[in-house]
């Protein structure tokens, strides 16, 4: 748990809760929750809940955001996403999107 902005590099086993912006460069095995914006360059094996915008690499399980979801290069979502999703590159999606889907690249569903 953190009461401000948080940057994580490396691997973490357990849930992450941040009252601010969050940046992950690595892997998380647990749920992630933040009250600000989040940037995930890596993987999360758990649910992601973000009150702001989310820039995403790879995640498993459910995603809920208050803002927009921007899918970065080589993005994979294994689960359902709740929020407006923007795909600039390619997205592999194993789930469904509840919100608008803006596609500039290719979306592959599995």
Considering the chains and any ligands shown, give keywords for the structure:
mainly beta, 70% strand, 110 residues, 13-stranded parallel beta sheet
SSE map:
Layout: E1 6-13, E2 16-18, E3 22-29, E4 32-34, E5 38-45, E6 48-50, E7 54-60, E8 63-78, E9 81-87, E10 90-94, E11 97-98, E12 101-103, E13 106-109
Parallel strand pairs: 1-3, 2-4, 3-5, 4-6, 5-7, 6-8, 7-8, 8-9, 8-10, 9-11, 9-12, 10-13
Task: Describe the protein in words.
There is one protein chain. By secondary structure, this protein is mainly beta. The protein is built from no helices and 13 strands. Strands 1, 2, 3, 4, 5, 6, 7, 8, 9, 10, 11, 12 and 13 form a 13-stranded parallel beta sheet that branches. The mean pLDDT is 89.
Shape estimate: globular
Beta-strand percentage range: over 45%
Report the order of strands and helices: EEEEEEEEEEEEE
First CA to last CA: what distance?
A: 34 Å
Helix content: under 10%
Number of separate helices: 0
Specify Rg, calculated over alpha carbons: 13 Å
Class computed from helices, strands and strand pairing: mainly beta
Structure summary, number of beta strands:
13
Characterize the biggest β-sheet: 13 strands, parallel
Low-confidence stretches: none
Mean of pLDDT: 89
Give a concise summary.
This protein is mainly beta and 110 residues long.
């Amino acid at each position: 748990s953190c009461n401000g902005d948080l940057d994580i590099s490396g691997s973490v086993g357990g849930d992450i809760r941040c009252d601010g912006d969050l940046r992950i460069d690595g892997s998380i095995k647990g749920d992630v929750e933040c009250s600000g914006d989040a940037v995930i360059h890596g993987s999360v094996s758990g649910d992601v809940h973000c009150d702001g915008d989310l820039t995403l690499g790879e995640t498993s399980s459910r995603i809920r955001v208050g803002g927009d979801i921007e899918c970065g290069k080589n993005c994979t979502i294994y689960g359902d996403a709740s929020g407006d999703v923007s795909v600039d590159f390619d997205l592999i999606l194993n789930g469904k999107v509840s919100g608008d889907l803006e596609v500039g690249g290719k979306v592959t569903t599995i």
